Amino acid sequence: VENPSRMTNRRIKETIGIRYDDAGKMAKIIELTKEMLLAHSDIDTSKTLIVNFNAFASSSLDFFIYTFTKTTNWVDYHQIKQDVLLKVLDIIEGQGAECAFPTSTVHMADGELFRNIDNES
Question: Which intervals hold domain Mechanosensitive ion channel MscS C-terminal (predicted)?
Answer without folding.
Answer: 15-98
